[in-house]
Amino acid sequence: MSDPTVPENERPAEGATPAAAEPAPVAPDVPPQQQAAPQPNPYAAPQPGAYGQPPAEKKKPVVPRWVWWVIGGALAFAAVVIVAIVLLANLLGGSGAKSVAQEYLNDIAKGNASAANKLARLDGGDEDFLLTDKVLGQAKRITAPTVARTLSSRSSDLTQVSVTYKLAGKSYRGTIELDKDDKGWYVSRGLTYQLPYVSSTIPGYSVPGAEHSITSADSETIAYPGVYTIQAPNKFYELDGSPVLTVAADTYQLKNLKLTPSKAYLDEVQKQVDAHYAECATKTSYYDIEDCGIELSYPSNLAVSSSTVAVKVDESPTVAIDDADSYYQFKIGPGKFSAVITGTDFSGNPASENLTGAAGYISADIKIDGDKVVVTFN
Questions:
Q1: 247 has which bridge partners?
Q2: pTM
């Protein structure tokens, strides 16, 4: 039966089975961030394929293989050019300096000082008098000279060259400098070393082949590396032993330099001492004779201030070598003098007396002037 309370138009048709009630829709089991679709950006540029058009496929440009060969060849050529420029720069720059440096070292090793001087453009100054073929040729010279390294300046042609060499069985290192001008490469600072200082209290020394001896006045004298034989500075001195002077990097030294006056020295000094006392004997004043270096006995009955004296040199004082450290000192023996003093006695009568004398105190300076000994008595 139908329910009279239900309106007729909402009643099911006869014979129809009532429909089961539809279940409520269930939300799919998805993460929360996927539940709401992102809202489109109204200001974004339209994407390809909008309005139902599929996105256009991008095509990569095809580069022909020959292009890569061209690019690779160009890079290889550029590398070759760079290497060639570097090699040319070394040939004209560092290598040029290196070859001149090696030639300079070889000249020194051969004893060819004049050739080395030419490469160094020396002007023959006073301090260069040992840089000669005669001097270097008689020295024991360096061996195995080698250019170890060159260091060039970026702002100029100035090049530092580290060198090595051997001398008397020992290895040494040194540094020279080269520069370049319109005439080419030259040695601007050579392989030379300053000699040891010579004290003014010694007469100096000499080396074979030198024009003159080396004294305290030659404080800036230089020499090429080598082992030099030491000699007496002149004929007025004798040298004990056979000392040598080694000139090298940080090793130059002068040892066992023991000089003694020679017979020529003593003979020359004796000659001048004889002349000095002979001149003293010409004086007639008692006190003048005393100041000259002759000590006379004092008269017993005469006033010396009003008397005259006649002196005779019976035996000139003998010169001997002093024991002092100075090479310019000497000592003399007493010698023998006689004199006659003439005047008036204390009674006012004319009188005379015989006196005796000996060498007294004298002061003298000795200087070696070339081939002469000059003794100056004060």
A1: 226
A2: 0.63
Residue the block writes with tokens 């530092």:
160
The CB density around residue 366, as the number of other CB atoms within 10 Å, is 20
Distance of alpha carbon 363 from alpha carbon 277, whole angstroms: 13
3-state secondary structure of 302: strand
Helix (H) or strand (E) holding 135: helix 133-137
Q: Report residue 17 as tokens.
A: 């089975």
Under 8 Å between Cβ of 205 and 233:
yes
Helix (H, G, I), strand (E, B) or coil at 175: strand
The position carrying tokens 């599929």 is 54
Q: Degrees (nearest 5) of the Cα angle 109, 112, 114? A: 140
Backbone phi and psi for residue 273, each to the nearest 5 degrees, phi listed first: -70, -40
DSSP letter string, 222-280: EE-SEEEE-B-SSTTEEE-S--EEEESTTT-EE----EEE-HHHHHHHHHHHHHHHHHH
Q: How far apart are the first and last CA of the chain?
A: 176
Q: Which CA distances in Å does 279 have to 17, 41, 282?
A: 178, 133, 5
β-strand pairing of 350-359 with 336-344:
antiparallel
Segment 204-233 mean pLDDT? 93
Reported as a pLDDT band with limits 50, 70 and 90, residue 366 is confident
> pLDDT digit string (tens) for 236-290?
999 988 889 999 988 777 776 888 888 999 999 999 999 999 999 999 999 999 9
Q: Would you say 186 and 100 are in contact if contact means Cβ atoms under 8 Å apart?
A: yes
CB 150 within 8 Å of CB 97: yes
Helix or strand run (H / E) with residue 372: strand 372-377
CB of 226 within 8 A of CB of 252? no
Whether the Cβ atoms of residue 286 and residue 296 lie closer than 8 Å to each other: yes
Structure tokens at 164: 């090595």
Q: At which residue do the structure tokens 């051969």 appear?
A: 110
DSSP, residue by residue, 141-173: PPEEEEEEEEEE-SSSS-EEEEEEEEETTEEEE
Measured torsion, CA atoms of residues 254, 256, 262, 268, in degrees rounded to the nearest 10: 50
Q: Which two tokens stand for residue 188?
A: 């601007």
Contacts of residue 264, Cβ cutoff 8 Å, sequence gap at least 6: 235, 236
